[in-house]
Design brief:
about 280 residues, alpha/beta, UDP-N-acetylmuramoyl-L-alanine:D-glutamate ligase, 4-stranded mixed sheet, 13 strands, about 30% helix, metal-binding
């Protein structure tokens, strides 16, 4: 299994369960708030590490209690945090409102938007087997990472969330693009050009649509009793990276990632519900 490098966001999540979402100007009561590690980058790193991946996290945290907790959490699952930088800023924060298994999320990026210029990205990426990216850090950093990866023939996985108006020239350098259904509708129509090998559209309970240059295959989801969908997409991405770097075929990797994502929805919390390898095997 090769080295998985995750370059992205590190947050703390504050979540509460609601019986219904508030309207404008309305205050509603929620259940007790739960504070837990999050951020799409950190989530993907933890998902891959819990499944046995050799993972390095590259990201930014604040010089505060949340940052210390986030770093300790990454260390707890044996992620290489050599290039996690602490700066004089607030750690990224996500406010999560859950309603009947679905969620709405507001992100305050904090330190995630303050990247230094002296990170040795070329050295980090050139030694990777695959690089995972999301859109919760400054786009110039993402674009630079993708250019370096292309130069060194390192495959990339890009989760385009939150979705933006990405240049087509940038998207066509991505090896595996993993939007959800709503995000895929905001991307250019024909993505399977350039270096892009596959478009993987996650469809929740409907599974994953695997789009290849000359065919589309829907790989069904694993039916489970969903308690919390937060982090399911990140689990999919982390598990997919583990499967690809361990030599599985594209469809085998999607099936493996589908199982991991399904299991993650059966528990509360983005990272606490992420499975270990024996969960999938059983």
């Amino acid at each position: 299994m090769g080295k998985i490098v995750v370059i992205g966001s590190i947050n703390m999540d504050i979540a509460t369960e609601l019986s219904e979402m508030p309207q404008i100007g309305e205050t509603v009561k929620g259940n007790a708030a739960v504070i837990s590690p999050g951020g799409k980058g950190a989530n993907q790193a933890v998902a891959a590490a819990k499944l046995g991946g050799d993972v390095m996290m590259v990201g930014m945290i604040g010089n505060d209690a949340f940052g210390a907790d986030a770093l300790a959490n990454l260390n707890s699952v044996c992620i290489d945090v050599t290039h996690v930088r602490s700066i004089d800023a607030t750690t990224g924060l996500a406010m999560i409102l859950r309603e009947r298994g679905d969620n709405r999320i507001i992100v305050a990026p904090g330190a995630n938007h303050a990247w230094p210029s002296d990170l040795p990205l070329t050295e980090i990426i050139s030694e990777a087997s695959i690089v995972l990216l999301q859109n919760e850090i400054p786009f110039p950093i993402i674009e630079k990472v993708v250019d370096i990866a292309a130069r060194y023939h390192v495959p990339t996985i890009f989760d385009p969330a939150p979705v933006d108006h990405f240049p087509v020239s940038f998207l066509r350098k991505i090896t595996y693009l993993t939007p959800n259904e709503s995000e895929s509708k905001q991307l250019p129509d024909d993505m399977l050009h350039g270096k892009t090998e596959a478009l993987l559209v996650t469809l929740g309970k409907e599974g994953v649509q695997l789009c290849l240059p000359h065919e589309k295959v829907t790989i069904p989801a694993v039916p489970v009793d969903v308690k919390d969908s937060t982090g399911a997409g990140d689990t999919f991405n982390g598990a997919f990276a583990v499967a690809i770097t361990s030599g599985k075929s594209l469809q085998e990797a999607v099936r493996f990632a589908n199982k991991a994502a399904a299991i993650s929805t059966t528990k509360i919390g983005a990272q606490s519900g992420m499975p270990i390898l024996t969960d999938i095997e059983s």
